[in-house]
Amino acid sequence: MSATKDEDPRIHGISSSIRVVPNFPKPGIMFQDITTLLLDPKAFKNTVDLFVERYKDKNISVVAGVEARGFFFGPPIALAIGAKFVPLRKPRKLPGEVISQKYVLEYGTDCLEMHVGAVQCGDRALVVDDLIATGGTLCAAISLLERVGAEVVECACVIELPELEGRERLNGKPLYILVESR
């Protein structure tokens, strides 16, 4: 599902605030840079508000933000809906005991880690990231959360690259996005 289909007037401002950087981080990649969205207080607020409006009545108990850009959107969403925020980090970034999940990216492999005990069996989780491409990162996040008994209610991303078909890799897990790549 996408907010663009709802024709919310805030979507245009969000979309137009995202800078596309050709050939980054390697030739052929059209990098969707959300740092320019963060520089626009109205677009940034509208982004968070759209997610909060969607999730405020869904009994979400944990918002899991994917490193690093999920950290920009996850905490304000969590605060606004009364949920805890759990960072899903790259290896060796979290102190203490962690569980890990390896995954494949469009240009290599990586791993996500989460603190043991941060999420409880029965928690209702929302996974937040800035973008879905091939879906590998979101699949790893879902796996981490489900391994400890959480119910992943939905994944939420600002941007989708539909041509990479990441949505199809989520095994039917709902995905909500605000804009499709340009």
UniProtKB/TrEMBL annotation:
This is Uncharacterized protein. It comes from Persea americana.
